């Protein structure tokens, strides 16, 4: 399961004109960590395997953060199956973190 922020190239161009990109990398790191923490906190726990296997990875020189899960059954927990309802944990974490991330970026652009 992967959650990815889209439109990063346009954001990079705009931010290069207005700020030091090291500030952006710090914001990406902070928001990625907060999203990972939230996804882990909200993940259903029976054995703890799913929670322990929600990882945060950086790429593009720290400009991209991806929250992923190595648990093979993570998508079934997130969205459910025809036999069980899902227990969303990554989606809600993304929905909460997205406006915070945008707000943080807007602050450094002013």
Sequence-ordered SSE layout with sheet pairings:
Layout: E1 2-3, H1 8-18, H2 21-42, H3 49-52, E2 54-59, E3 64-69, H4 74-79, H5 90-109
Antiparallel strand pairs: 1-3, 2-3
What percent of residues are in strands?
5-15%
- C-alpha termini separation: 34 Å
Count up the domains: 1
Helix content: 55-70%
Tally of extended strands? Answer: 3
Structural class: alpha+beta
Strand order of the largest sheet: 1-3-2
Q: Write down the Rg.
A: 15 Å
Please give the largest β-sheet.
3 strands, antiparallel
What key attributes describe this structure?
elongated, single chain, alpha+beta, 110 residues
Written overview of the protein:
Helices cover 57% and strands 13% of the residues. Strands 1-3-2 form a three-stranded antiparallel beta sheet. It is built from five helices and three strands, in the order E-H-H-H-E-E-H-H. The chain is α+β, with helices and mostly antiparallel strands and 110 residues long. The chain has one domain. The radius of gyration is 15 Å and the shape is elongated. Helix 2 (21-42) packs antiparallel against helix 5 (90-109).
């Amino acid at each position: 399961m992967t959650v990815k922020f889209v439109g990063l190239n346009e954001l990079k161009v705009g931010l290069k004109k207005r700020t030091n990109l090291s500030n952006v990398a710090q914001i990406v790191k902070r928001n990625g960590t907060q999203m990972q923490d939230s996804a882990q906190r909200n993940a259903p726990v029976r054995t703890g395997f799913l929670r322990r296997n929600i990882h945060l990875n950086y790429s593009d020189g720290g400009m991209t953060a991806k929250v992923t899960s190595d648990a093979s059954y993570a998508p079934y927990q997130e969205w459910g199956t025809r036999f069980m309802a899902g227990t969303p944990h990554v989606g809600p974490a993304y929905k909460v973190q997205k406006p915070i991330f945008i707000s943080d970026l807007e602050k450094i652009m002013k």
